[in-house]
Amino acid sequence: MLEKHDIENIISGKKDWMDKELLERLAEAPLECIEKQFPHFIYSISSLDSVKRPKEQHPIFYGCFDWHSAVHSHWSLVRQIRLIEEHPLKNEIIRKLEESFSEEKTKKELAYFEDNEDFEKPYGWAWFMSLIAELHLWEDERASQWEKTLSLLEDKLLELIEHRFLEQKCPLRVGTHGNSAFALQRILDYSRVKGDEQLEEKVKEKSIEFFQKDEDAPAEFEPIGWDFLSPTLIEADLMRRILDKDEFLGWFNNFLPNLDSTASILKPIEVDLDELMKYHLVGLNISRSWCLSGIGSYLPKNHDYKSLLIKSAKKHAKAGVDQAFVRDYGGSHWLLSYALYLFTRKESGIAP
Fold first, then answer.
1. Separation of CA 175 from chain center
2. What is the pLDDT of residue 43?
3. Peptide bond into 352 cis (omega under 30)
4. Residue-range definition of the domain harbouring residue 309
5. Is residue 352 in some structural domain?
6. Which residues contact 285 (CB under 8 A, 6 or more apart)?
């Protein structure tokens, strides 16, 4: 899919290199899957009577196999048409978003969280905050209305974030949905976009409480199982956003001491597309790439790790993106959101 594009452009984090063909591919999968109710991942079932069709429980975010994927697929569509004014599928995207975002549907989504307060904690909550931030950044009357429509759910999730996530005593350093650092990144970005200084300060305090004392990260053990995030790199990418530059350099040197080209974390995962849960590892290569790019770009020119991280980011981007544009629903329902995050990580809304 990306053979004709230079790897420097792919990891640049800027949108200018993306052509019509790529934009269509980035939009086609989320456009299709946000209305695809099955297959779907069903959560805990208490009785036969408790089973409802996904669309009955979640009239907005029912597609894409699970709630969080439906959320970040909506985020992906909004981000594309906000950043690319001449997007080839703009009109179709707007029609789909208009169908999704209604007051009645939002109230039903809210009602589910009233009864299931830990549902999608914290990964889905974090992606929802990214969606709201994206709508907030888009200077468009429709986006303003959609943001207002979703505000009831936004307020509820902010309440849950404050009382059921930011009050946690211990972080989860995992490579899957429970990862605390990833959620803190998304919530931090939201707080900065919305100008919520109180929330931003709480996220900073929690990040420092959780991670500032971390040293000598056991990165050689990654990945553990079916990771699609690197606990080590996601944490480091969070701390570069939290700490000032000198503080971060001191922290980072202690967090990953003696890093060299032989380190396993700098080598892309070789993914056999016949393996179970293969697409998680494809996603891991992509998310590693955006972390490595972000950290590497932040390091000063004379830092020993700078070139190591940038070279590794390129290798991970090539390995991940080459396998992300698949027709198989197991990958297509979520991987292109990760690809878009990598492609546009230096545009507004991400680490602002």
1. 13
2. 67
3. no
4. 7-42+51-343
5. no
6. 268, 269, 271, 316, 317, 319, 320, 323
How many structural domains does the chain have?
A: 1
Question: What are the residues whose beta carbons fall under 8 Å from the beta carbon of 327, sequence distance 6 or more?
Answer: none
Helical (H) or strand (E) element with 344: none
pTM of the model: 0.96
Encoded tokens for 147: 């943001």
Q: Fill in the amino acid letter for 282.
A: V
State the CATH number of the domain containing residue 172. 1.50.10
Q: Is residue 36 part of a domain?
A: yes
Q: Which two tokens stand for residue 352?
A: 């602002």
- Cα 317–chain centre separation: 16
At 242-271, the pLDDT tens digits run 999 999 999 999 999 999 999 999 999 999
User: pLDDT tens, 216-243?
Assistant: 999 999 999 899 999 999 999 999 999 9
For residue 67, how many C-alpha atoms fall within 13 Å in the half-sphere facing its CB?
Answer: 23
Mean pLDDT, range 290-307, rounded to an integer: 97
